[in-house]
C-alpha cells in the first residue's frame, strides 16, 4: 500500500501510510479499548472534516482509507470507514464493530437532525456500544450520546436496522451499493 500511495499520491501520503502501518503494528498487542482510543485520535487529528461535494465533487462518496489519508479530509463516512478498517487490521473482531448511520441532533432545537455516521464498538452482543465519532472526540457509550438516533448499522458480516440485536441481512453488500463499491476499491488499494 505504501508503494501504491507513493505512485498515486506522492511521498507525503506514502509517509502517512508508513505511520498508519506502524500504528496498526503497535496496536495489535493492546486491549481493544486502547486500540479504539488511539485509532479515534489518529484519524480525528489527521483528517479535516469537509463535505463530499467539496472534496470529490459528488454528493455522497465513500472514500477508502488510502483516499482519506491522501486527501487528509473527509466526511463522517470516511472517518468511520478508516477507523473500522484500521481496527480490523489491528485485530479487533469484526462482530464487535458496526458502522452506524444515525440521525444526529444539531443545535438547541431537538427537531433539527442531520444524517451522520459513526463507528460503534460492542464489547459484547448486548453491551452499550462505545461510539467513535469525528464530531465528539471522546469515546462515549451510546447511552451518553442522546444526540444520536441509530437508523441502521453494518459491518462486513451483516446489516442491522435501528438497535436490533439480530441482523436484518447477512450480506450488507447486496443492500448497500456504496459499501459494495467501497469494498471493490479497497481491494484495489490492497485492503481485502
Automatic annotation (TrEMBL):
It comes from the Bacteria. Gene3D superfamilies: 3.10.620.30. Pfam families: Peptidase_C93. This is Transglutaminase. It comes from Kineobactrum salinum. The lineage of its organism: Bacteria, Pseudomonadati, Pseudomonadota, Gammaproteobacteria, Cellvibrionales.
Amino acid at each position: 500500500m505504501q508503494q501504491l500511495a507513493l505512485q498515486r499520491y506522492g511521498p507525503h501520503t506514502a509517509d502517512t501510510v508508513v505511520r498508519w502501518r506502524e500504528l496498526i503494528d503497535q496496536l495489535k498487542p493492546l486491549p481493544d479499548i486502547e486500540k479504539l482510543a488511539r485509532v479515534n485520535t489518529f484519524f480525528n487529528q489527521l483528517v479535516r472534516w469537509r463535505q463530499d461535494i467539496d472534496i470529490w465533487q459528488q454528493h455522497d462518496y465513500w472514500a477508502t482509507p488510502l483516499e482519506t489519508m491522501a486527501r487528509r479530509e473527509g466526511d463522517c463516512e470516511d472517518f468511520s470507514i478508516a477507523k473500522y478498517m484500521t481496527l480490523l487490521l489491528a485485530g479487533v473482531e469484526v462482530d464487535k464493530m458496526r458502522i452506524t448511520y444515525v440521525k444526529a441532533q444539531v443545535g438547541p432545537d431537538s427537531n433539527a437532525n442531520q444524517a451522520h455516521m459513526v463507528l460503534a464498538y460492542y464489547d459484547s452482543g448486548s453491551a452499550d456500544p462505545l461510539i467513535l465519532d469525528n464530531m465528539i472526540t471522546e469515546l462515549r457509550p451510546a447511552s451518553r450520546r442522546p444526540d444520536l438516533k441509530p437508523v441502521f448499522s453494518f459491518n462486513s458480516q451483516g446489516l442491522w436496522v435501528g438497535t436490533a440485536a439480530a441482523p436484518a441481512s447477512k450480506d450488507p453488500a447486496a443492500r448497500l451499493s456504496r459499501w459494495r463499491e467501497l469494498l471493490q476499491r479497497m481491494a484495489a488499494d490492497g485492503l481485502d
